[in-house]
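Holo model, N-carbamoyl-L-aspartate. Inputs:
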Amino acid sequence: MSNTITIKKPFDSHVHFRRGAILRAVVKETTRTFGKAIVMPNTDPPINSLDAAIDYRNEILAAPGAGDFEPLMTYYLTKSLTPQEIARGAVGAEGTRIFGVKSYPFGATTNSQWGFRDMFEAKDVLKEMERADIPLLLHGEVHVSDDGEEADPYDGEKLFITDVLPRLLDSFPKLKISLEHLSTAIAADFMERNGEAGRLVATITPHHLVYDRRQAFSGGYRTLLHCKPLVKRAEDREAVRALAAKGLPFISAGTDSAPHPENKKFSSCSAFGVFNSPTAVELYTQAFDEMNALDKLEEFLSVSGPRFFGVEPNAETITLEKKDWQVTEPIETDEGVKLWPVGHVRHGIGNETMRWHVR
Ligand code: NCD
Ligand code: ZN
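Output:
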């Protein structure tokens, strides 16, 4: 096997940039290896109008290292999002249009306080999305079940796959749906049976491919791996890996890179979110190498995502080389705040080595 691999510059189907100083620090970490990305809307305040999306996109394009990167904007499915705003977003303005609407279950994750407990309450918006051909991007976890009880966080994805997703597919037969950040064997199995390019697709993060809960709890809780959905059992990771290695046209890379300031990450109540853009493409490549599936890497990283969102894959390429290195530094904002990337030699799971390097 060759020690280098050249692929079209990847497409990130799911990234969090935040705003202000964090955004100014992390955009260049994504643009280093990704040419385009679907940008998540769970900022404070949330992005739920075209005007807000235009403003947010302009902030990303003005960040250091943005270059010719293309941020593809999304709305947050909040109670104030209207069908009219969906129609406006589909047409777009000032070079910005809306590529998806993200649903967060109320209370489940970072800035999910504006999400629905029951997404079906938004049926008029969902109907308009179906008409306007705007995909629904799902944080597919049940956080609070119908009886008002908080679900076990290790079961949230399973409950969503068994109780909610089939009803959504039935109720909105033409709606394009992306199930984000697969983390369980049950979700991998559901996708293998029901996935279909252009109708039901799914994304996978680097951390759900590389780690399971043995690493998350190795020696103590590893907060850099703390995220929603939680990293699961070894057998879940194996099932997600097996799905990724198939090179299916409806499975793509979505890093879910989600930076938090040091004081929120290393606190008694660690914020949910893995910051992985400094190592994402490297970790994906390592996982595909371990699975003897490097021939499927380009479809997963660079082709499948653009196909779903109706954009061209990047014309530019990147070359990866098999070479050991370690992540020794945090990313620091221009306000002096440290953001610790997953895989960091000290704060990850300890003395980790990256096996691939982007030239
Ligand atoms: C994300 C964040 O921090 O914005 N956190 C996470 O754990 N994945 C939100 C999300 O995608 O759930
Ligand atoms: Zn996310």
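The longest helix spans residues 156-171. The chain has a mean pLDDT of 97.
Archived with the compound record.
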